[in-house]
Amino acid sequence: MSESSAAIQSLPVAQGQADEQAGRAYLRYALTLLVLVSVFNAIDRSILVALLEPIKDELQLSDLQLGLISGVAFSVFYATLGIPFARWADLGSRPKLLSFTVGLWSLMTALAAGAQNFTHLFLTRVGVGIGEAGGNPAALSLLSELFRIRKGGVATALFLVGASIGGVVGMWGGAALASVWGWRIAFLVMGIPGIFLAVLIRFTLREPRQHCRLPSFSEAFGRDLLRTAKTLFVRPSFFHCIVGFTVFGLFGQGSTQWSISYLVRTFELPLDEIAGIFSIAVGGATIIGTLLGGYVANFIGARNARGYLLFPCAMILLNVPIYILVYTLNSVYMVVAMSALSGLFLGLMTPCIFACIFGICGVEHRAMGLALLGMFSALIGGGVGPLLIGGLSDLIYPFFEQHSLRMALLMSVVFLPLSVLFFFRASLTLAADFHDPADH
Q: In a 3-state reduction of DSSP, which class is residue 66?
């Protein structure tokens, strides 16, 4: 064979290798953008946690009003609009949806800098909730299509790590900025970069599906939507998983919104100092847990799908005594250490829960399933949780005074074992409902 013939035959091989390398490079780039979506999502959601106390002082708000701003204002619109956005993600272009939603929530975060009263701040958080309603369903739907369910635990974990990083940046960075320049500048600085991310997503991220369309009114709001939701809720594992996650969110999201306020009021430390210590310790532990959780999810996925829920049950039960200590110890360092341990356990379990939802819903309803999970978790967990704790704190203040928030948080721990009951019930039927199309 001549040298020219050999060279000609080697061209397809070389081209195939180049295409494979380009494909892998794009996957890494797409994953990076999706992780950044998760980072900015968490920044704009968590920054308010760090700024509740200075906002309370300047605008003269009650704990109940703070609960409305941090809970209901965000969660009601996040929950209700998540469904039509999810139908868009299931049928249309997910990069376009991500670009729109990331830009919207970032803009509304920046606009919070100009809030002059309760109503202004409430409306900006409504805007953040509307924007973030479409972020996670679209990003996770795209992620699960790029990476297999049973072997994509690490990719999912990286996405979730982005949320932990964003939580640290939002709380610590927000507190640090507020301590020097005030809470208004903190909102402005944290909101603007997300607008540039939205532009980058719009022009560089590709939609893998060949045919895209916007959902019809019936698919987004009417009979077809109800039919799709019914298809998922008749699966027992999906129903009980949604209830378990929602009950868990009553404590998880409620306590998170009040975490910095609890530490500031109980231990009387400067906002930037306590926010820095807490966010780095808890955020760092959660990042480690989530990364390890990706490998745990892969390990479980190769063996028994039921483990996707049994493992979280064990992690949640371990958190019950931990949080009792968090709200009873009088050492700030022990409280932070216990909170970090909790973050590690919760990080370990989260990739398993998302892998479970991916498998139950299938490719055709994946974004819808995530939106339903987010809707109930946000509406009840994120909406009622902070409001319940804030209202209870106001109610029992005459009896406990400066420790009323601590006692309200301690009472909310009861939701943890209750959520385990529903997750365990979901695990009993998970094997029959779980399906990873890449396995066939």
A: helix
